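Thread: Modeling a multi-component assembly for a lab meeting

Hi all, long-time lurker, first post. My supervisor asked me to bring a structural picture of a complex we are working on to next week's group meeting, and I have zero experience with this. I have the sequence lines for every component (765 residues in total). Could someone generate the structure of the whole assembly? Inputs are pasted exactly as I received them:
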Amino acid sequence: MATESSRFKFDFDPGFQSSRLRIAWYALIGVLLAGGAVAAYIRLTEGMASTNLTSIVPWGAWVAFYIYFVGLSAGAFLVSTMANVFEIEGMHRIDRDALFAAIISMVVALLFVWIDLGRMDRMYFPFIWRQLTSALSWEVHAYVAYIGILVTELYFSMRIDLARVADRASGLRERFYTALTLGRDDTSEASQAFDRRWLKRAGILGIPLAIFTVHGGTGVLFAVSKARPYWNSGLFPVIFVISALLSGTALVMMIYVLRTKLFDGESVDPALLDRLAQLLIGFIIIDAALTAIEAFIPLASLHPHEIETWQVIMYGPMSWSFWWFMVGLSWVFPMVLLSKKSWRRTPSVMVLAGLSVVIGIIAVRFNIVIPAQILPVMEGLPHGSYFPTLVEWGSSIGIMAVGLLLYTLGAETLPLTPLGGDHE
Amino acid sequence: MSSADGDVLPGVPSVGREDLDSMVDAETTDPREELADVDADTELGVEMAEDAKRVARGELTGDEYWAKHDAAAAAEFGDAYRETPNPAVDAGDQTVSTEAAESMQCTVGSMDTVAAETAQTDDGEGGIGAGDEKWGMVIDLQKCVGCDSCTVACKAENRTPPGVSYNVVMEEEHGEFPNTSRTNVPKPCMQCENPPCVQVCPVSATYKMDDGVVNIDYDRCIGCRYCMIACPYGARYFDFGENYDDEVDEASEITSPEYGVDRGKREEKKSPVGNVRKCSFCTHRLERGEEPACVETCVGDARNMGDLDNPDSEVAAMADSNRAFQLKEDEGTDPNVYYLK
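Re: Modeling a multi-component assembly
Sure thing. I ran the full set together rather than chain by chain. Output:
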C-alpha cells in the first residue's frame, strides 16, 4: 500500500491546538471529578438516604439525567444517519463526531441508571432475570444492543483512517491504532466501499432501534404508567424522540464547531453549520408544538389530575425551570439566535444556540420526571416535594465529568475528523 | 401519721407474699390425682416433676437429672420416648451438657428440625404463599373510627423502619361546621389481581403467589423503584436504611419474617435496605393460621380477612354485597381488598 499512502496526503495531529487550553480543560475536569468522587463516596456509604428522594417522589435527578443522556445519544445518532444512511451532502464531516458523542452519552446514561439503583451491587440482575411485560427490562437490553450498533458504526466509519494512521505511526502508537482496526489494515478503495456498505447497514438497523426502542422505549417506560396520568399518553414517547433529536442536533452542532476550532485548528464550514441550524429550527418548532398539544388535550378534557400537574409545572415552586430553562433556553432564546442567516453561519453564535438547547433540555427532562410525582396518586395521601441534595448534584456533575474526560481522551487520540480527501 | 397501719391504704386488702403463694397452691391440682388418669407410672411422673423443680431452683444439674431418669423414662415410655426430639441438641442455652444429651436415648434430633418438618407437612408442596385460598380483605368503612390502630399494629408486627408504613389510614374531613363528615379509608397493599407493579419489575422480583398475595423477593430486587412509580395506590415504600435505634434500644435486633424468610438483625446495606417494601397481608401470620395484625387489632372489627374463592366465607359474601367497592376500579387492577361503603 506504499503507493496508496504516498498518494494520500493527510496531516494527523488530533488534540488541543493550544497546550494551555488543554491544561486548563483537564484541570477543570479534574476538579469536577474530585467533587464528584466525594459525592459518590457519600452516596456509596450512606446509601439512598443521602438523596432527597422519598417514597412519594422515588425518582429524581439521576433518573432525569439518565433520560436526558439517552436522549442526547439517540439524537446525536440520528444526526449521524443523515450522513451515513441518507447520505445528505456535506454531512459526512460530522458522522464520527455524532457517533462518538452518542456512545459517550450512552455510557453516561448507564452510569446514572447505576447510581440510582437502591442495590448498586445487583446491577447485572436484569440480565439474569427478566420480565416480558416490563418496559425497563426491554430497555436494558435495547441499550446494550444500541451501544453495540454505535460502536460497530464508529468502527466502520473510522477504520480506514485508523489504518492510515497506523501505517504512518510506529511503536506503541502503531500497535494502538492497529488494534483499533481489529487487524483490517487495508486502505484500498475496495475496503472503504466495504466499510461504507456495512456502515449503512448498521445505521439502517440502528434507526428503528434508536427511535422506537432506545428513546421511544424510554418514553414508553413512563407512558405505560397509568398511575401517573401526566405520562400516560400516546404522544408522550413521540415528544421524547423529538426532544432527543433537538438536543442531539444541538450537541453535534456545538461539538462540530468547538472541535474544528480548538482541535483541528480549521475553519468551520458555514454551509454545514447553516444546515444543522435549520434542522435545529425544525426540531424546536416540532418539539414546542407537540408539547403544546400534549398540554392542550388534558386541559381541554378537564382531567383534574393532569390539570393540577400542569399547574404545578407552570405555577408551582419549580416553575422557573419551565419558563426560564424549558421555554426560554430550549425554545425561545435559540430560536432568536437561529432566526438570521448570517448568525446561522457564525460559529460562536451557533455554539451559544447549541449550548442553550443542550442546557434547556435538562429542564425538559426534570419537568418530565418530577411533576408527575408531586400530586399524590390517591386523594388523602400527602403531596410530594423534591429538590436534589448536594450529593445528588455533585455525583451528577461527577458522572458528566467522566463523560467529558472520555470524550476528550477520544477526541485527542482518534481520527474523528475524516482525513484528507474524505471531506465531502 | 406514720404508723404500721398507715401503710395500709383504705379499700386495699392487706395480703403478704405467703397469702398469695398459698392461693397458688390452693389452685394447683394434686399431681397424683392428675397422673392417676393416664396409663404412665404415677410415681415416676411425680418424682421427675419434683426433680425438674430442683433443676429450676439450681439444686440439681440437668446432667444429673437425665442420668437419674433417662433409663426409667425409656423403660416406661418405650418407642414414644425414643422418638421424642432431644431438647438439648443444637441448643446453646440448655441445662444439659452436650455429652449428657448425646448419651440420652431420645435421639430424633433437635426441636427445631422436628418443628420444621411438622410445618412442611402442613404446607403441602409449595412452601410460602402456595395455599389454595385467594386471600382477600374486606374493610367496612361504616365501622372504621379512624383510630389508626391498624397502622400501629402493622408497624409493630412488621417492624417497618421510619418512612415505611405498609398500612395507612387516609383521613379526610368534608363539609363546613356544623355539617361535617369525616371519611377514614384504611389502605394496605391491594394485592391486585392485575398488579401494575408486577408488570413493570425488570427482574421479576415482585410477583403474585398462588394465594393471591403479591410477593417481593428482597434478594432479587435491585431497588430501581419502577414499581413505586407504577402503583396506582401508593402502597409501596422504599427502604432508605433508617431505623428506630435512637428512639428504642436494640430496635434493629430482630426483623419480621416477611414472606416466611427470617432475615435476622436489621443491618446496613443488607436487604431489605435498598429494596422496595409493602404490605404482605402478613403472609407469615396467614401461614400459621393467624389473621394479619391489622385485622386482629381493629377495635371496631372493621377489617375482615378470608378466602375470596370460598363462596361460604364471610369475606366472599361481603365482597359480593351491594355495599362493596374497590379503590380505583377503572384502573383494571381488580384489587383483592374490598371496601364496604
